[in-house]
Amino acid sequence: EVRLVESGGGLVQPGGSLRLSCAASGFTFSRTDMSWARQAPGKGLEWVSGIRRDGSTTYADSWKGRFTISRDNANNAVYLQMNSLNPEDTAIYYCSTSLVSVGYWGQGTQVTVFS
Fold first, then answer.
1. What is the DSSP string of 15-29?
2. Among 31, 44, 72, 82, which one is most buried in terms of CB atoms within 10 A?
3. Could you write out the three-class secondary structure of 71-107?
4. C-alpha atoms less than 13 angstroms from C-alpha of 5 in its C-beta half-sphere
5. What's residue 115's pLDDT?
6. Which parts of the chain have pLDDT scores under 70?
């Protein structure tokens, strides 16, 4: 069974940082591309960043330079380091992957940036 479990969200003041984690199981993690997406209040799902099996990374323009995605194949985990957070970053953040054209998502972790 494919499982993605996010953690690390919380409350943070503007300018602060958070590191999100996603624990993956049920598939060969090291051979699988991974992504982070988010859903802000009242908005649709937005892709944030992706990391391929070879470690190469991509980012949506909105978060390029502030967010960093990384992976640890030994521990089947993917991370999202978020810096210089602002209230517009408030959202539920999801870890995701696609296996044989089927998408899988975690339950999400809430990030709230408030002053």
1. T--EEEEEEEESS-G
2. 82
3. EEHHHCEEEEEECCCCHHHCEEEEEEEEECCEEEECC
4. 7
5. 82
6. none
